[in-house]
Design a protein that fits this description.
- The protein is α/β, with parallel strands linked by helices and 273 residues long.
- 38% of the residues lie in helices and 19% in strands.
- It has an eight-stranded mixed β-sheet with strand order 1-2-4-3-5-6-7-8, sandwiched between helices.
Length: 273
């Protein structure tokens, strides 16, 4: 039986089960849902804009309060196989309070799509946004591609996209090998070749400045993945900043962006000042 860092399948299942590690996750997600519903009442929002032909290839565009504002494009988590942009729209509140535009990106989930398709779809979404920035009055030189959990992985895969000027990864996954060897692979069906091709820490090259954060109350493997990826970026002389998140778990970490005075959002605002 394959193992990873001395962990067998049973140990890996525990090491990556974020839901089991957070007792009040249902209440937290219900709160996110209520706050996300309020976001969809924003004036001027453009919903479900198609960036491709697939049913899930959609973007919600929420305009900021000023012309020429930066944009934060957000990719939701769910281990590439669950949840949706609508479940995490609450994160828009923080950037909107600073005048930012916000784009919420949806993508096709497993098992309908393989990991490579998801990565390609995010690239299509970025291209779509860049093509519309002038029309929507957004600054084309200030796009922060942000993602949480699986979304953090997908954001990291596009550090080198020419339209991306800043990458923000919250509680991301940067090595897919433990995912392949755990219960998460039942729907993903990752192959060793896909792990090699789509693990961001194995493809570090010149790219956008990167912000990384992970909650201190998260599973140790999530914390290790972030620390290792940060070290790998530094070893390649890439610009990276780690932002501490004391007391935050895998779900509440999104508050670091959703809150107008969140430390992670503050780092994004400073980067674009």
């Amino acid at each position: 039986m394959d193992s990873y860092r001395g962990m067998n399948r049973e140990a890996l299942d525990r090491a990556y089960n974020n839901v089991a590690a957070v007792p009040d996750v249902a209440e937290t997600m219900a709160d996110f849902g209520r706050r996300s519903a309020a976001i969809y009442e924003c004036i001027g929002i453009k919903r479900d804009l198609a960036y491709g032909e697939g049913a899930s290839q959609r973007i919600d565009w929420i305009p900021g309060s000023r012309v020429g504002a930066p944009t934060l494009a957000y990719i939701h988590g769910g281990y590439w196989q669950s949840l949706s942009k609508e479940k995490f729209a609450h994160i828009a509140a923080g950037p909107l309070a600073h005048g930012f535009n916000v784009a919420l990106i949806e993508y096709t989930l497993a098992p309908e799509a393989r990991i490579g398709t998801m990565v390609s779809e995010i690239g299509q979404a970025i291209d779509f946004l860049v093509a519309h920035f002038e029309e929507w009055g957004a600054d084309p030189t200030r796009l922060c591609l942000a993602g949480h959990s699986a979304g953090g992985h997908l954001a990291a895969c596009h550090r080198n996209h020419p339209g991306v000027s800043l990458v923000l990864c919250m509680s991301g996954l940067y090595d897919l090998e433990p995912i392949r060897l755990s219960y998460l692979n039942e729907k993903l069906d990752l192959t060793p070749a896909e792990v090699a091709a789509y693990s961001p820490e194995r493809h570090i090259g010149a790219g956008a400045r990167t912000l990384l954060t992970v909650g201190s109350a998260e599973l140790s493997e999530l914390r290790r993945q972030t620390a290792h990826y940060a070290s790998s970026l530094r070893a390649s002389d890439e610009s990276v900043e780690e932002i501490s998140a004391p007391g935050f778990n895998h779900f509440t970490i999104t508050e670091m962006v959703a809150s107008p005075d969140g430390a992670v959002l503050d780092a994004v605002v400073r980067a674009f000042s």
